[in-house]
Here is the input.
Amino acid sequence: MAQKNRLPAREFPVKNGILGALLQTEYRRLIDKMEHVELQRGAIVYRANQEIEYVYFPEDAVVAMVDVTDDGRTVEVGIIGNEGMVGINIFLGGITTPDRAVVQLAGSARRMRARDLRKEIRFGSPLQRLLLLYTQAFLAVISQSVACAQYHSVEQRLSRWILTMHDYAPREFPMLHSFVAAMLGARRSGISTSAAHLRHLGLIDYMRGRILVVDKQGLEKKSCECYQYIRKQYKSMRTQVPGLLAA
Here is the structure.
């Protein structure tokens, strides 16, 4: 019965999976509390320890959560696209975030004031249940990302990162070696060497700061197990809520 009341994609262009899984009545109530924004690549959504004013539901945009050490080194601990929400610390009862949130792929998002989200989760709502499922999956992703950064080679991690970006942007996407190095916590030279090797193998191609996946299956073999593990977490989330990632 609930399935029949879900948002018809042709009538309501809902691009975020969590919002798309809401019933029509719930979505219509919440959308009045949101605004449409465009996020530019490289823009900092949150700085570490900054008070969160808004949470974001990405549509086309992709945002990376990045840990920053005292000496300025960085490493990506989680990537958020149209399957989730940026700002889960608010959902968990926090006010600030320990990580930096950086836009990896430019695009659109819906944003809601943190205080409005707090009201939603305080009284309980369908959105609260969806965010609980998403948070469980995302925390598992963060844990795996930390292990990946410590135990896997630069080439494996680069392959995982490229595959993840390819899932969000199937045609091609920007890739500056310096930017990717900052995301993976690696040296730029290591990224350049690994990318050149993957290109030599015919798995990817790149030109003028943009990358194209040529052989996805071959690239999956070069990647560590983290790529499939992360996909499994979100697939599990889909099975618990039909239509969750149908946007």
About this structure: The longest helix spans residues 126-151. The chain has two domains: 13-150+230-240, 153-223.
